[in-house]
Design a protein that fits this description.
Blueprint (H helix, E strand, L loop, with lengths): L2 H8 L7 E5 L4 E4 L5 E3 L6 E5 L5 E5 L3 E6 L12
Antiparallel strand pairs: 1-2, 1-6, 3-4, 4-5
Length: 80
């Protein structure tokens, strides 16, 4: 993944939550643009805020795919 591709998804208006698939099979969810801090000079890493005070540093060369959501929460089941 390139910085330009990430900035396009991150800068979309309206913002749409997305999930990055990593080469090791793990996923990193970005619910809002404020949860991600790209390198200001276009470096190959980004910081993503996780739950609590945790954060994850992601190497963009290890991102294999991005799944972009529709901006609505996932449904947990049918209402009866």
């Amino acid at each position: 993944m390139t910085n330009e591709q990430l900035r396009e998804v991150l800068g979309a208006r309206p913002f749409r939550p997305f999930t990055m698939q990593l080469a090791d099979g793990s996923k990193v969810h970005v619910p809002h643009s404020e949860f991600m801090l790209p390198h200001p000079k276009g470096g190959r890493t980004v910081a993503v805020a996780m739950s609590g005070d945790a954060f994850k540093i992601v190497d963009l060369l290890l991102v294999t795919a991005i799944e972009v959501g529709n901006g609505r929460p996932a449904r947990r089941g049918k209402k009866k």
